[in-house]
Design a protein that fits this description.
The structure holds 2 protein chains of 2 kinds. Chain A is α+β, with helices and mostly antiparallel strands. Helices cover 27% and strands 22% of the residues of chain A. Chain B: Keywords: 2Fe-2S, Iron, Iron-sulfur, Metal-binding, Oxidoreductase.
Chain lengths: 789, 161
Amino acid sequence: MPKDGGIGASTKRREDVRFLTGKGRYTDDINIRGQLHAHFIRSQVAHGTIRKIDTRDAEAMPGVVKVFTSADFAGVGGIPTGWQVTSRDGSVMLEPKHPVLAEGKVRHVGDPIAVVVAETLDQARDAAEAVEIDIDELPAVMDMKAAVQGGPLVHDEIGSNLCYDWGFVEENRAAVDEAFKKAAHVTTLDLVNNRLIANPMEPRVAVGDYEDHSGQHTLYTTSQNPHVIRLLMGAFVLSIPEHKLRVVAPDVGGGFGSKIYHYAEEAFVTKAAQILKRPVKWTSSRSEAFISDAQGRDHQTRIQLALDADNNFMALRCETYANMGAYLSTFAPCIPTWLHGTLLAGNYKTPLVYTNVKAVFTNTVPVDAYRGAGRPEATFQLERVIDKAARELGVSPVELRRKNFIKPDQYPYQTPVAVVYDTGNYDATLDKLLELSDYAGFEARAAESKARGKLRGFGLAHYIEACGIAPSNLVGQLGARAGLYESATVRVNATGSITVFTGSHSHGQGHETTFAQVISDMIGIDASQVEIVHGDTSNTPMGMGTYGSRSLAVGGSAMVKATNKIINKAKKIAAHLMEASEADIELKDGKFTVAGTDKEKTWVDITLAAYVPHNYPLESIEPGLEETAFYDPSNFTYPAGAYGCELEVDPETGKVEILAFTAADDFGNVVNPMIVEGQVHGGLAQGIGQAMLEHCVFDENGQLLSGSFMDYAMPRADDVPFYSVDHSCATPCTHNPLGVKGCGEAGAIGSPPAVVNAVLDALHRGGFTNVTHIDMPVSPSRVWQAMHG
Amino acid sequence: MTKVSMTVNGRAVSAEAEGRTLLVNYLREGLGLTGTHVGCDTSQCGACVVHVDGQAVKSCTVFAQDVAGADVRTIEGMANADGSLSTLQQAFQDHHGLQCGYCTPGMVMSSAALLAENPKPTEAEVRYHLEGNICRCTGYHNIVKAVLAASGQDVTKIAAE
C-alpha cells in the first residue's frame, strides 16, 4: 500500500492546485456563445396581491429579448417537495403550489415576479427599472404562533398556515406525560434556535442551454446533487425526460445545504433557453442570495426534562414551532421532524421521548436544511436543558451527563425514537475532551480571570447525529419521495489507470483526493493513477449527491462495492493467466500472486489482458474491466463527540471572547485526517457564528433587516480562535465497509450549546445566578441585558 | 464603451469597458481571467481582491477606467515563473488552507499583500488583516496557519497539525 496516499494518510489535496492558481471552473465562469442574461425582478413586499405587470416599455428597451412573467410558465408545474410528513391526526401535510414565478400573489420579500432577458446583464438590469408592477400590499404574517392563531393566510387556497402538526413517538405521548407527573424534578426551558443564512461564498448561478435539433437541454448549476435536480425539475416542473436533460454542477463554491434544493431560477433558465433558442444565464447577487436562498433553523421550542430522585433522566418532552417560510423548499418538511425528533435521545438512555412539531407558513424566505439540519436544533435544546437541570440540582454538568450516558456495552442501542445506534463510546470522548481542554486546571484560570475583572466560563456539550442518510426502505416509510442510496462506476482503463464516476458531489470536501486514496489502498496502485469524476449527469450513474455527511459513508461504500467487483473479476483473469485456482489468487500492493508459489502478475498485466483478450477465458467472462455499484445503507451512521468552550465575559460590556474551543469526536475510521480536521474547523466556525454573531432578522412587515454582509454578521478571522480537535476515540461504524461515520456537520452541531453553556457558567460564577438562558446570538447587548436588564 | 488598457500579470492588455464597468468584470469578462471571484455586492467578502500597483484592492469597488494604465496582479499571476506554486500558495495547500476554493484567490492576494508589508506577522496581525476576507469553509484555522507558515514561522505547535 502506498503509505503516503492510502487510507489514513493526510494526503495533500489535488484540487488545490487549480483553486490556488485561478483555474477553478465554477458555474459563473461558464459562458456559452450567444448567451443571454437574466435579471429577476423580485417582490419588495412580503405579502401582496399582484394587480398588474406591464412589460411593454421594458421590452422596447435596447438589448431586451423578452420579459417573462408567470403567464409564460402557465404550462409548467410548481417546484416540488421531496418529503411528505403526516400529522398526528393522520392527515398529510398541506402542500401549496410553489410556482416558478409568482402567480397572483407574492409571499415573501424576494419572491420572483418577472424576469428580464437581454443581450447583456446591464441591459437586463436597466430594463427591469421600466417594468411596471402594481401590488396591493397585504398584512404580513411573521410570528409563528400568530400565524396559526388566525393570522393572515400565506396561501389562501389551503385555508391554514399550519403545514403539519407532527407527534413522535405519538404512542408514547401519554407515557411521557405520566413520567413527568412522577418525576422528582422537572426542568423547563423556552428557547429560540435563531434563523440563519447559509451564505456559501459562491452565490448561486444557473445557465440553461438548449439544442433545437435534438431537443437536448443542459443546465449548468451550483448544486450539491445534479441528479436530484434533473429528477425534480425534469419530472415535476418542466416535463423533460432524463435522456433529454443533462445537469452539470462543476466546481461549486460551498453549499452547506443551501445548494441541495431545486430552485425556480434553474427551471427558469432551462425553459427560457428552450423558448428563446439561446443560452440563458443567471448569476445571483449576494443581495439576491439573502432573499432567495433557502435559510436555516428558526425554531421556537419548549423543552422539558424529567428526572428521578437519583438524577436519572426519566423522560424528555419537546414542543416546537418550526418556520417553513412562504413555500416548502425541497427537504423542508423532514428537517424539524425526522432529522430532529429522532435525535432527541442524544447520547443518553432517556427511556421516553415525545416531540410535537408544528410547521408553520409565514411571509418569509423558505427554510430548509442548513449544515446539521434538525440535529443542531435537537442538540442545542437537549444540551441546554441538561445544563440547566444540573444547575437547578446543584450537580456537576459533567457528572449528570456521564451518569445518563448510554454505556459502551449497550450497543446496538435501540433508542425510544426509532433509531438504533450501532456503536459509540461517549465516556471516552468526554474523558478526551476534559483532558485536552485541561478541565482540571479551569478553576485556577477562572480565578486568574476574576483577578482581572473578567468572568471566565466553561461550557460542555455532547452531541450525536444521524449521518449517512439513509436506508431507502426506511425513509420511504417516513415520507421521503426518493431513495437515498449512492452510486459509483469504476472504470479501469487498459493500461491500469482508473476513472471513478461517483454520484457524490464535492463542493469543498476534497473527494477527488480522498476517494482516490480509498481506491489506491484497495488495489495497491498509486493514487495519482486514479481520477474521480463527479457532477455531470451525462457521465455519472444516478446518485443522490452530497449532504448530511453522507459522501464517504454512502458514496464511498458504493465505490468500495464496485471496486470489489473489479477485484473479483481481475482475480478470475489472473487465475486464468497463471493457470491457478481463483481461490488461491491474492492481490497485494498492485500484484496478483498465487498462494504458495512464486507466480506473479502485475495489475497492468491483468488490465491489459481484460482489454486485449487474446489469452482470456472468453467463454466464462466478458472482456473489459468496468463495474457499477449502488449502495443502500442498512442504517444511519452515528458520529458523536464532546465539545468544550472556554470563554471570558466582560461584565462591564457583556462582550464575550472565546479563549479556547476543544472538540473530541468519534467519526469511526478516518481516510484523510487533514481533511477531517478541516471539516470540523469549518463546522465550529459556523456553530460559533450561530451562537455569537449570526442572526437573520425580519421586521414586522417582512422586510429583511440583515440583508447584506454589513448587517448579517459572518464569522471573520478575528472572531474565532485556533481550535483543538481530536478524533482518536474511534468506534468504527459496524455496517459500512470503510467503518466511517461522517464528519461534515459535527462542528456546527456540537458547538452552539457549548458556547451558550459557557456564557451561562461565566455569569453564574460572576454572581448573576438568576440568568437561566440567553438566546443566540449571545451578543454583548443580550449578555448585558441578562446581567443588568 | 471605450478601450481600457492596463498591465495585468506583466502583460499589456486592453478591453472594452463602460464607465460603470468594475475592475472585477473587466478582468473576468473582458480578459477571461475568471480566477478573481465575486462573493458579495457590498465590498465585504474580499473574494475579488487583486493588487493594483502593489496595493491589495477589492476589484468590485474600483471602476476599470479609473485604473487604466495601472499594474494589476491577479491570482493567475501568483505562481512562480516555472508554473510551480509560490511559497504562499504552497503553504495554503500544505496546511489545507482552502476547501471549496471560492474565497481562496482573495485570501491569497490579501495575505500576499500582508507579507509584503509585514514579513513576520503575529497570529493576531494575520487575523486582523484578513478581517475583510470571508471564508465559510475553513473556520480560518488553516488559513491563518498557512500564512504564518509562509512567513517562515514554526506552526507545528498549533493544534491539529
